[in-house]
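In line with agreed milestones, the collection of sequences with tokenised folds has grown. One record among many is set out beneath this paragraph:
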Amino acid sequence: MKTLILSLVLLLCFFGVASAQKTIQQKIERDPILEADAKHNLEVAKLMFRLRKAYKGVLMRCEEIIAAHPNFSKMDEVLYLAGMSSFYLSEGKGSQKVNLNIKEEREKYNPEKLRTDATVYLKMLIDKYPESRFRDEAEKTLKALEEKGSEPAR
């Protein structure tokens, strides 16, 4: 009888511990000041992206967020905007034109480098945030980038 009671108690303890382990989620500590700053930069980047097609400015804002606040709560959107802006700039799109005659711009906005950057940002989005609402668009753009990579140089 003692063994049966002991077994029952151990069994209940085991299931109690096992079920408690399933509900544990890692909480990311976010600095409220950095979070507010990143949200402001994201809002500005979204306006520049949608309304002005100012992809160089969007990319600058997104890179600032990525560098200063890697745990930002909306990082999937930041990676999406950075990836799409890089892609569009590589295609020569947008209101801010790239001047490849200027050394700094040639290094940062070289179309091949921009395509590589776009691929990195969009793959990071898909890998780190598989449930993101931006995933489908990121996958379509990655497919387009892969197709462009297989085209012969002109």
In short: The CA atoms of residues 34 and 69 lie 6 Å apart.
